[in-house]
């Protein structure tokens, strides 16, 4: 998850974005992803960054 936050911060900086409103994550169907846990961890790690209030949207693909 830390890597995701780093990528989000890098992309925001490259785009000169002051704020990120949403982060879309694509995950394989076979992955055991607990969406609530992902949301909580993202919120915790994004504190104090441009992604602090961003929504996390998971897209499950085959």
From TrEMBL:
Pfam families: HypA
Record GO biological process: protein maturation
InterPro entries in UniProt: HypA/HybF
Domain of life the protein comes from: Bacteria
GO molecular function terms noted in the UniProt entry: nickel cation binding
Keywords from the UniProt entry: Metal-binding, Nickel, Zinc
Protein name in the entry: Hydrogenase maturation nickel metallochaperone HypA
Organism per entry: Candidatus Onthenecus intestinigallinarum
């Amino acid at each position: 998850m830390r890597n995701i936050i780093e990528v989000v911060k890098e992309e925001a900086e490259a785009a000169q974005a002051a704020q990120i409103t949403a982060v879309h994550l694509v995950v394989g169907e076979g992955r055991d992803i607990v969406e609530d846990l992902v949301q909580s961890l993202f919120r915790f790690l994004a504190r104090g960054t441009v992604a602090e209030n961003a929504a996390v949207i998971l897209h499950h693909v085959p």
